[in-house]
Amino acid sequence: MKTPKRYMKACWVKKMPEHKHTILRIAGFKKLGGGAQEHVRQLCLGLTKLGYRTILVCPESPFANQMEQAGVRVERMELRQNIPAIKNLRKLMLREKPGIVHSHQYYANKRGLVAAKLSRVPFIFTTLHQDVNIDDYGNHKMNFPLWTYNKLLAYIPHKIITVSEATRTHTLAQLKVCPEKVVTVHNGIDLKKIQAINDEYKQAIIKEFNLVPDGKYISIVARLDLQKGHEYLFRAIPLLPDELNVKTLVVGDGYAEDRLKKLALELGIAERVIFTGLRNDASAIVACTDVAVLPSLNEAFGRVILEAMALSKPVVTTNVGGSKEIVEHNRTGILVPSKDPGALASAITKLLTNNELALRMGVEGKKRVYKYFDSTTFIKKTATVYEALYNLIYS
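Request: output the structure for the sequence above.
Response:
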């Protein structure tokens, strides 16, 4: 498929932008702790070191406060109201004259892309942190708001960045855009944060949750919603050998919390499941467990898998989406089919009863993360995407 002239020429750009290295980054996040939030945090801080000036637009929230405390300029703005948000964004863009607008997630994309187009911003990017047109169960969905969202994604941004090749393939199929428009930049993790988890952190976790030295523990760090597949992990727990006496630490919050607590009672596993709530020390909790599990029904990437691997923990995750690009099956972890409690139980049991295998997978997983998924690499690749488009237009 030939690249359209509209994409190649950025026809409304008449001269080299004066504020080439000013990025207006738009994100609709409010809560802390998610993978997309960490993605944006890393970009804001990391690109500053590469000479970019960042202005972050997001709603009033703990996330906004965190970013401001980190030294990022934050413009607080509600993004859910369509016309007011577009007007306010356009006013900000005309005042600041950014060379780049880069939006993240649904509401930020819908408002930010329109405002950037109306403001004639030279370079417009969006990052898709999850597959478009997919519901929590992993099934295709479509309605009028999604149809309009698809059209915006297809026609406004110069580049769409996806966090995995799986999401890129899905995006191309759904939006039917030219392949050159969509590029993959894998997420990375801040290895310094992982390295900072010491025995003092671990001992605090062990004391808080009464973890015993000879106990067997598994962890799942994820939003409590249907997509993440907690239900199938819970149904796998009764299938684990009784003599292992496995306990599961469930880290996160979300709309499915009450439903999952009720399910734990129905399955008779309530005493073996510990709900920790949303934590800013989730990695330290994982460091105190034996196996990390992520049984998602669909998963664009799965940053928590990387963090567990960086901690030398063997992982069990479903063979969906970007997870397959992180985990090498039977080398750095075990991939299982989604919605399969029996396969989950078998993989977890295998790792809990074979210390040599678990240790070997942990070592290999850590090597893989350090080689391919450092946040520094992710930030530089994102900057390369910016520069490549700039050079294409002005070369």
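The first strand starts at residue 22 and ends at 27.
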